[in-house]
Structure formats: structure tokens, C-alpha cells
Amino acid sequence: MTTWPVPGSESEEVPGGGKPGSFWEDRGDRFHCGVDIYAPAMSEVLACETAEVIDLGIATSPEEVSYWDTTRYVLVKTRSNLYCRYAEFADVLVHIGDRVLEGQVIGHVGTVIRPHLVDGCSPLYIQRLKLDGHLSMLHFEVYRLRPGYMRAYSGGNWFGSGRPEGLLDPGPYLRNAVHGIENY
Ligand SMILES: [Zn+2]
Q1: pTM higher than 0.85, yes or no?
Q2: Distance CA 48, CA 104 (A)
Q3: Could you give the CA distance from residue 30 to residue 154 in angstroms, rounded to a whole number?
Q4: Of 23, 40, 92, 94, which is the most buried if we count CB atoms within 10 A?
Q5: What is the pLDDT of residues 58-78, one digit of tens each?
Q6: How many Å apart are CA 10 and CA 12, to the nearest integer?
Q7: 181 — pLDDT class (breaks 50, 70, 90)
Q8: Where are the alpha helices (DSSP H) in the chain?
Q9: What residue ranges define each of the domains in the chain, with the CATH number in brackets?
Q10: What separation in Å is there between the alpha carbon of 111 and the centre of ligand 1?
């Protein structure tokens, strides 16, 4: 059993079936590496389970893509030896080496999209996020191996061939938090 990471989320349904924000959503020139949990900016993000913080960094930035706002990520290693990347934070309340407890607030949901910079030339999934008012979210990824970040990987999307090594569908992990089914 794990804890749902965003108590203030619009829904506790994990996006699936190719819907916006679902895992491995085909975004035309890229695939989505996690799931997006839409929530108001500055909603609290909780650790799904007890874990060690092993990396922190920038998830999106306007230096990389103009319509992105600056957000951060936290990579943790869980008790079950999975790697979870929580991303698109406004702020992060933990440090590398910290042990975070299940349910502990680790940061706050950030605003990813700067809508005034999204236009008809932006990727369609970005235009749709603007139309739907989904500008802030937790982006959540699960890996069986420690992920390596490379040029083919940006902003929670995969631009390369194949899949990032060790990447898992986070759906079962998150549904476990809602329904208590052991899937991992
Ligand atoms: Zn995402």
C-alpha cells in the first residue's frame, strides 16, 4: 500500500488509455514517460512511500523550451527498490541523502505551461493543456533501474527510439495507493 501523492488533485483516477497525461501517450514526435496528475499550483506533494532522495534537478525551464516555466524534480529510491521521479514542482523541500517518510510533504506542484507563449505552432498536446486549463501538475515516473538522463529525454518525454531503460508504467503503482492492490 502506498499513499496517493497529491491530495488536492482534480481526480484520483490515474490517466490511462491514451488520454492526455497517460503513460506512453503518443505526442507526435515524443512519448510521455510518466503520468500527469493535474492539481492547482502549490498543492502539496506527498511521498508515496518511504524512500531515499538520490537526485534533485530542473525538470522544465524556459531556457530549454520558451513556453515552459521553471520546475524541479526529485528522484527517490523506494524500500521496494523502485526509482520514482516526482517532477514539475514549484519548490522542493528535501535534499539529496534525505530519508523521506510515506506521506511526508516533499514539495509543491508547479506551473509548467506559460499560456501566453503557447500558439498554433506549439505541439498539439501543449495547446490542449492550455485549452483545458491544465497548466500545473505532478509528473510521475517509475523505473526498475536508476534512470540516466540524456539528450533523447526532455521534460518527461522520450524523443529516442525504444524506451528509456527500466521504465515502468506508473499506473499500477499509483492505483495501489487508491485501491490497495499489490501490483509491484
Ligand atoms: Zn508529464
Answers
A1: yes
A2: 8
A3: 9
A4: 23
A5: 999 999 999 999 999 999 999
A6: 7
A7: low
A8: 124-132, 171-179
A9: 31-145 (2.70.70.10)
A10: 12
